[in-house]
Structure formats: C-alpha cells, structure tokens
From TrEMBL:
Pfam families: Acetyltransf_3. Keywords: Acyltransferase, Transferase. Residues 2-160 form the N-acetyltransferase domain. Coiled coil: none annotated. Belongs to the acetyltransferase family. RimJ subfamily. This is GNAT family N-acetyltransferase. SUPFAM superfamilies: Acyl-CoA N-acyltransferases (Nat) (SSF55729). It comes from Streptomyces siderophoricus.
Length: 177
C-alpha cells in the first residue's frame, strides 16, 4: 500500500499534479473545485497547513513508490471528539482496495493519534464506490442530506482507541454510535 503521510509543503507539486490529472474523474462523482482552486493552489495549500497546525484539520496524502500522490484522505472540522472524513483516490489507483485500506487506517489514526471518538462522512447516492468503502470500513448510514444539490447520505462511525493497527487493516468493525 502507498504510504500515508501527513500533508507538508514538500507535497505541493505532486498534490497539484494529482488534482489536475484526476480533475475530470473526480468531477464525475463530486462537485468540481473550479478554476480558482487550481489558480491559487499554493496559497490554498498553505492555508490548509495552517489549519492543520492549529489542530482544526488533519490532511494526509497517499504517496506511491515513485513519490506520486495516489490519494488524499482528510479529517476536517475536528471538534468535540469528532471530525468529518473526506477522501479521493486517483483514477489509475481506483478499484484496488486502496480507498478502503486508507479509510481503515485513518480510523485507527483518528482514534489513536488524534484522540477522536467518532467520524462523520457523507457521499452522494450515485457514488456507489464511496458508499461501499464507507460500509466496508464500519460506517453506518445515519440520515439523508443534500451535497451540492445532489441527494446523498450521512454516515457515522464510532472509534475505539484500543483497536490495533492490524485490526484496522483487517477491517474490524465497530458499530456506529
């Protein structure tokens, strides 16, 4: 599996290449980030790093053997023991179980490194792959919601700080609370 690394300034070039290379692929299942996102990428990334340093969010990249970014997995809006999980995987790495392994690892890190007790997530109804990743990773549907005007589902997963990395990798599931 590619290595999960906490986002740092040295990732800027590889992360921008990842976002540009996969822009159309991502736009098929999530709203496009828009041209301004790419025009101000460096500035935006430095803002995210400041949020990370403040402990408001934790941004991670999945780095392949050649240093290329194959995915992003983030914990956003950290507060009151929880956070919102978000992720995206490169088109060329999709369908290989990478998203499921990364989400499971993030659940472990969220509990054991960041001290979180639950994670929230959401996806559109038409994003079957993301719905499957969340289900395989122990998330339970807790409601319906709109995501950029599209029908979607809200998910919740409780975390157990005692869960071992091996159990997280194997996909040990805890019921959502």
């Amino acid at each position: 599996m590619p290595e999960m690394q906490l986002l740092r300034p040295g990732h800027i070039s590889a992360l921008l290449a990842f976002e540009l290379e996969n822009r159309a692929y991502f736009a098929a299942s999530v709203p496009d980030r828009g041209d301004d996102y790419f025009a101000r990428f460096d500035e935006r990334l430095h803002g995210l790093l400041a949020e990370q340093e403040a402990g408001v969010c934790y941004f991670h990249v999945l780095v392949g053997a050649d240093g290329e970014v194959l995915g992003r997995i983030n914990l956003m809006d950290v507060a009151e023991g929880g956070a919102e999980l978000g992720y995206r995987i490169a088109e060329r790495a999709a369908g290989q179980g990478l998203a499921t392994r990364a989400v499971r690892k993030m659940c472990y890190l969220a509990a054991n490194s960041y001290g979180l007790t639950f994670l929230r997530a959401a996806t559109t109804l038409d994003n079957a792959a993301s719905r499957a990743v969340l289900a395989r990773s122990g998330f339970a549907v807790v409601g319906e919601r709109q995501l950029s005007g599209r029908p979607g589902l809200s998910y919740l997963r409780s975390l157990a700080a005692t869960e071992s990395p091996g159990a997280a990798a194997a996909g040990c599931r805890r019921s959502a609370g």
